[in-house]
Amino acid sequence: MDQKDAHDFLVNRSICNTYSVKTAPIRVLFVKMRILVSNDDGVYSPGIAALAKAAKQFGEVRIVAPDVEQSSMGHAITATRPLRLKRIHLDSFDAYRVNGTPADCVALGMHRWGHVDVVLSGINLGLNLGNSCWHSGTLAAAKQAALLGSRGIAFSTNVSDSREPDFAALEPYVVRVFELLLPIKTLSLVNVNLPEKPKGIRWTRQSVRHYDGKVVPDKDPAGRPIFWFTVTPLEGAAEGTDRWAVEHGWVSITPLRLDLTDEADLARALALSDTPPTKISSKLTQRRSSSKSSSPTTSSSKSTSSRRKK
User: Fold this and answer.
1) Is residue 26 within 8 Å of residue 177, measured between CB atoms?
2) Region class of 128: left (phi > 0), else alpha (psi between -120 and 50), else beta
3) Which residue in 220, 185, 180 sits closest to 24, CA to CA?
4) CATH number belonging to domain 3-207+238-264
5) Res 294: pLDDT
6) Which tops the pLDDT comparison, 121 or 230?
7) pTM for the whole thing?
8) Domain-by-domain residue ranges, the chain?
9) Nearest to 124 by CA among 50, 205, 19, 199
C-alpha cells in the first residue's frame, strides 16, 4: 500500500475509526492460512505464546523466533556466520529457535515453510510507538515479511517492572484486530500497540516527535567507563497518532510502508530550475573526451615529464 492508498484507506474509514470488541464481529470466511509467528523478546517469551494462541483459530501456526532476547536489534541480518534452527517444545505449537535476529528468523522460517500468508510478530513486552519503529526488532520481523512478498503485523503492549501484561485480557482485542486486518490484503505492513486496559480500537498514524538525547557516563564494578543513552521527548503526542491513542486507552493500528521516499520533497526538487538533466548528451560527452585527448596542456606536461626522465 503506497502513501496515497494508505491516506485514502484511513480517510474512508474515518467515520468508523473506533472499534470495540463488543461490536458484532466481521463476518468473513477465512480460508485456512499459514501463519508464521516471531518476535524479538526470544522464543520463550510469554508474549509469543499468547499471540500464537490467538492466531491458531485463523490457520496453521508455526513459531520461529530468536533463541535469546534481541530487543532493539532493528532490521539487522546475520551475514558473517551460519544460522542454526532447532525444534523445541512450546505448548502444542510447531516451534523453532534460531541463533539469529528477528529478521533472520522470518527469512529462515519463510524459506523452510514455503508459502506463508501472514507473519505475526510479538506480542512485544514494551510498546513500539512513533520513533521506536526505526529500531524495533519486533517491527523488523514484520518488515522482513513484507520485503519477502508476504504480509507482516507487529504487536506490542505495555509492561512494567512489577508485573507482566495480562495476555488473557488482551486476547479479545488481538482477535478483533485479526478480524479487521486479515481481510484487507492491501495492508502489507501494520504496527499494532495495545494499552494495558483497552477501551476500543482506533486507526492511527505514526507519531514523530523530536527528542533530547542524553548520554549518561558511569562506571562498571571494575571501574571501567560505561555509558547509558536516554531520551526525553520535547513535545507531546499529536491527536490521531499511535502514541496519543495508547495514552488514551485505545488499541492503535497504524498502516506502514517500506518506501521511505519523501514524495513532497522529491516533487519540489524535480521542480527546481537547475535540476540536473536525467541524461547527458552523447555529443557533449564526445566533445569533452576529444578536448581532453588533444589538450596542449596534457601533451606539454607529457613531453616535459619525458625529458625529465631522460
Assistant:
1) no
2) beta
3) 180
4) 3.40.1210.10
5) 55
6) 121
7) 0.78
8) 3-207+238-264, 279-309
9) 50
